[in-house]
Write a structure and sequence with these properties.
single chain; Endonuclease, Chain A; 4 strands
Length: 135
């Protein structure tokens, strides 16, 4: 028996990328050591898709982890560098303080001390221990 109906096409469902965990070792470290809520992949701009690697929104502190510094990663390509400049400058105009680090230094006492000083609103004339480690 034949029918005159044409078979209906199945709608393609767009597969979503796996979402990164919103909590990880660094966010847990900030919560326990700094007593501050740190959010991973924090979307800070109302219209752009920009996200900070980590943010402490209560203090408008952003932490950007710059990967590929020694290997020519995206952050060091001309286009990536210029895009990062636009993002960081816009964030600064919005009142954010953006701190940049590399993966090897993210979980160090020096990074946590830098964030403590930023949260406390302290400034210093002496170089932070953070900068000594990367030289």
């Amino acid at each position: 028996m034949k029918t005159n109906q044409t078979p209906t096409k199945r709608k393609k469902t767009q597969q979503k990328k796996p979402q990164p965990p919103k909590s990880d070792f660094f966010t847990t470290l900030c919560r326990s050591d700094l007593k501050e809520e740190c959010i991973k992949e924090f979307k800070f701009h109302p219209t752009r898709k920009w996200r900070f690697d980590y943010a402490i929104p209560e203090h408008k502190i952003a932490i950007e982890v710059e990967g590929g510094v020694w290997t020519g990663g995206r952050h060091t390509s001309p286009k990536g560098f210029l895009n990062d400049m636009e993002k960081y400058n816009t964030a600064t105009l919005m009142g954010w303080r953006v701190f940049r680090t590399i993966p090897d230094l993210l979980h160090t006492n020096a990074t946590l001390q830098l964030l403590r000083e930023a949260i406390a609103g302290r400034s210093t004339d002496s170089p932070n221990e953070f900068f000594v480690h990367i030289m």
